[in-house]
Amino acid sequence: MRDREDLTAELVRELLREQQPDLAERPVTLGARGWDNQLWRVGDDLAVRLPWATESADELLLKEHAWLPSLAPRLPLPVPVPQRLGKPSDRFPRPWIVTTWVPGTPADRAPVTRGAQAADALARFLTALHRPAPDGAPAGRDRRGGPLADHAAGVAQGLDAAEELGLIPAPDAVRAVWEDALAAPAWDGPPVWIHGDLHPANVLTADGGLCGVIDFGELCAGDPACDLAAPWILLPDGGVDRFHAAYRPAADPATLRRARGWAVIKGLGGVFVGDAGVHGRPGGKRTWGPPAHASLRRLAANAGRPG
User: Fold this and answer.
1) Distance CA 100, CA 271 (A)
2) Contact 140/196 with Cβ under 8 angstroms?
3) Closest by alpha carbon to 181, among 253, 241, 272, 248?
């Protein structure tokens, strides 16, 4: 296996010459380095995604290639649609895909400023996505979309660590939100399609509004509350209520409570990643901190709110 730093534009060109020769003469430039994959732009409208940082990246790419093309046409925001599958070879011993390129800037670097537009766009997107998933749909990795109780021990440890480090200003209020979410009735509907990883780095903005959703590697069937955490971390103050008014069918009170629990999980994760970025630790991303802190502040202010 190649070293994770040993992915270059020339390698991408070689792979294209070998397996997709009609694309080989297009300009190739680095688009982004993610947790699992690197993204290289190929001309103006396509991109190559190559697994690089984790062993599980292969499976995630193959899942996107299998399921996303059939889901994408019904989604009202642009998403990267897999077009071609690259096979493992001597040159690169892992699968890779060619997808459409979605323009925009990740929301952790260009936050939403047009809250009403973003709330309505996110609600339309999740309304369209959250349909009953077919038999054989993938289950969530790391228990995404499953019962919140599966995450209880990890969240308790995370809250203790965040409080000790002074990373959250109202730990008791955040704990109250989490405990209320844990006590909420479980999802009793059919498993629905969920994105599974809606955080600011996976949502694109332009001119202050939402313009795309990327990275469907965690796509799975499960409880929609996992995705309904997204308004807390993506939208500015006041956006959550507008989102809930636009999302259909309207979420029941138990689902809203579980969604706040998932928002605690996402907020804690973002706080730790952001803090690591501030202090230069491996895996840290400074830009993840501000939206995560804002989401935990909003959640704390809503502690004790019904539904």
Assistant:
1) 31
2) yes
3) 253
A 10 A CB-CB count for 14 gives 15
Distance CA 166, CA 117 (A): 34
pLDDT at position 4 is: 47
Amino acid at 180: D
CB atoms < 10 A from the CB of 8, how many? 14
For residue 244, pLDDT beyond 80? yes
262-288: pLDDT as tens digits: 999 999 999 999 999 999 999 899 999
Query: Taking the C-alpha atoms of 75, 31, 47 and 85 in order, what is their torsion angle to the nearest 10 degrees?
Result: -100
Identify whether the C-beta of residue 147 lies closer than 8 Å to the C-beta of residue 182: no
Distance of CA 220 to the CA centre of its chain: 12
34 Cβ contact list (under 8 Å, min separation 6): 53, 201, 215
Q: What is residue 2's predicted lDDT score, i.e. its pLDDT? A: 44
| Alpha carbons 20 and 16: distance in angstroms, whole number | 5
Q: Does residue 54 have a pLDDT over 90?
A: no
Mean pLDDT of 226-235: 98
Band (108; pLDDT cuts 50, 70, 90): very high
Q: Report whether 68 contacts 76 (CB < 8 A).
A: no
Three-class DSSP category at 268 = helix
Q: Which tens digits make up the pLDDT trace of 142-166?
A: 889 999 999 999 999 999 999 999 9
CA dihedral 101, 103, 106, 107 (to 10 degrees): -140
The amino acid occupying position 155 is: V
d(CA 26, CA 16): 10
Distance in angstroms (rounded) separating the CA atoms of residues 297 and 169: 8
Give yes or no for a contact between 111 and 75, defined as CB atoms under 8 angstroms apart: no
